[in-house]
Amino acid sequence: MSTTHTPAGIGTFTVRALDPLKDAELLHGWVTHPKAAFWMMGDAKLEDVERAYMEIAADEHHHALLGLHDGEPAFLMEMYDPAHRELVGLYEPEPGDVGMHFLVAPTGTPIHGFTRAVITTVLAHLFADPATRRVVVEPDVGNKAVHALNAAVGFEVVGEITKPEKRALLSVCTRAAFARATGGTTGGTTEGAAR
């Protein structure tokens, strides 16, 4: 399934399946950039990135997608089943929960509202699947910018949890909360067929 999202004045956002080998060099530049510190891959070599995304590609409970802005790579999106990955034993999953991570590519020419358009696109894509009831995230407690962004699109904090690699702020966003936060419309459409 592919989602197209067109926020006013920012352009067109789409997502496509990630190719772990073809996209690895691009991703390596993103995940090792200082602005991606919370991604925790700052010291990764190209082979590390290839291996990490090959493992995701082979995992039935974890998927990675590449986000495009006006046809050009602009963000990374991962979706996972929190009953089987990332949050096992750390919270009580509900049917229809989908875990999510996203990373916006570094740029020297930022666009006002771009990151919010990205997270809105990511959520629109996840909620385009009728089986998705809630989106679950677990950003680092120190990532204040993402906490504010999450709140702006409808996430509510559940509480702090301790993961092996970080102290995280578990938050959830329901379909209804996302619709309220985005004014009831996301500008998204679903087309085509179906970390």
List keywords for this structure.
single chain, 195 residues, alpha+beta, nine-stranded mixed sheet, 5 helices, 26% helix, globular, disordered C terminus
What's the layout of helices and strands?
Layout: E1 2-5, E2 13-17, H1 24-31, H2 46-57, E3 62-69, E4 72-80, E5 97-104, H3 114-127, E6 134-137, H4 144-152, E7 156-162, E8 167-174, H5 175-181, E9 188-191
Parallel strand pairs: 5-6
Antiparallel strand pairs: 1-2, 1-9, 2-3, 3-4, 4-5, 6-8, 7-8
Summarize the structure.
The protein has 195 residues and is an alpha+beta fold. Helix content is 26%, strand content 29%. The protein contains 5 helices and 9 strands; from the N terminus they run ββααβββαβαββαβ.
In what range is the share of β-strand residues? 25-35%
Number of helices: 5
SSE order, as H and E? EEHHEEEHEHEEHE
Low-confidence stretches: 186-195
Mean pLDDT figure: 87
Terminal Cα separation, in Å? 14 Å
Q: Residue share in helices?
A: 25-40%
Helix/sheet category:
alpha+beta
Radius of gyration (Å) = 16 Å
Q: Give the spatial strand order of the biggest sheet.
A: 7-8-6-5-4-3-2-1-9
Count every beta strand, where a strand is a DSSP E run of 2 or more residues: 9
Q: Report the sheet with the most strands, covering strand number, pairing sense and barrel closure.
A: 9 strands, mixed
Give the overall form.
globular
